[in-house]
Prior knowledge:
By secondary structure, the protein is mainly alpha-helical.
Amino acid sequence: MTTLATAVQAFFSDRLLRERDASPHTIASYRDTIRLLLVFASQRTGKQPTKLTLEDLNATAIGAFLDHLESERGCRARTRNLRLTAIRSLFRYCALRYPEHAALIERVLAIPPKRHDRALITYLTEPELDALIDAPDRSTWTGRRDHTLLLLAAQTGLRASELIALTPTDIHLGTGAHVTTLGKGRKRRITPLTKETVAMLRVWITERAGTDTTPLFPTRPGRQLTRDALARRLTKYSAQATEHCPSLREKNVTPHVLRHTAAMRLLHAGVDTTVIALWLGHEQLETTQAYLHADLAIKEQALAKTKPLDSAPGRYRPPDPLLNFLEELG
C-alpha cells in the first residue's frame, strides 16, 4: 500500500478510535468524506484508491473535490465546510507522520472554509410548544412515551442522538434530579430536571417496565428509536397541533428545533448565555450567541432602555461663513 493508504487506515484506527475515542457519528462522517474524496481522486487520476499518493491529493485536487461537492452533488456551503474539516483532520495527522510532505500538507491546510449566510434559528413559542406536547394520544402506550419524550426534550434541550440513546440509568429522580448524557465530543454533562418532568418520568419508567440497560424510549419491540423515526413523529404531531395553534404551519419542527426552544426559554428566563452554553454542551460560547440574534424581544427591551434621540426635524443650513471662521480659530 502507498503512504496515503497506510495513513488513512492509521488515522481511523489510531487517531480517531484509540486516541480521540471519537463518537460513531464522527467516525461515520469522516469515513464518508474520505471515501468520497478517494473515489473522486481515483476517477480524476485513473488510479485505484489503494494506489493513490499524497501528491494526488494536493491543494488543487482538494479544491476541485470541494467544488465537485457543490456543483455535482448539490451540497451547500455548510456541508462543504464539514467535509473540509474532516480532510484537514486527516492532513494534520499526516503532518506528524510524514514531515517530508510538509509543504504539500501546509497548502491543503491553508484552504479556507467557504463563507455562507447564517439563517436565524427556528424555535417554538410557549403556545406552540404546549400544543405540540399535548398532541400525542396519551390513551395509548406510544402516545404516553412520545408525550414524555417531547416534554424531556423541550426542558433539557438534549440532542436527538442523546435522547434516543438514554437508558433508565441516565435518569436520576431523587434529590437534585437530573439526566446524565454523553454528548458531542464524548463530553459527559448533567442537566437538571423540573418537578413536572420528574413526575412524568417516574410514571413512564414504571409503565415501561424494561431493564436498566434498554432504551428509555423504546419502540414496541424494545429496540432503540432511530433519528428518522423521531423526526417523523415530530412531523406528525406538529401537523396535529396546528389545529390548536395555526402558527405551527409555518415552522418545520425538528428535534433540533426543540433544542433551540429549550435554549430560548432559558434565555427568556434571564439565564446567562455562559450557563446556557454549559446546559446545551456547546464547545464555544459563540454558538450560544445565535440565540441572542434570534430573539427580537431582547432587542426591543434593549431599545426601550436607550435614551430617545432628541433631534428636531428640518433642513440642513450651513453656518454663517463669518461665524464659522471665528469658531474654527479656537
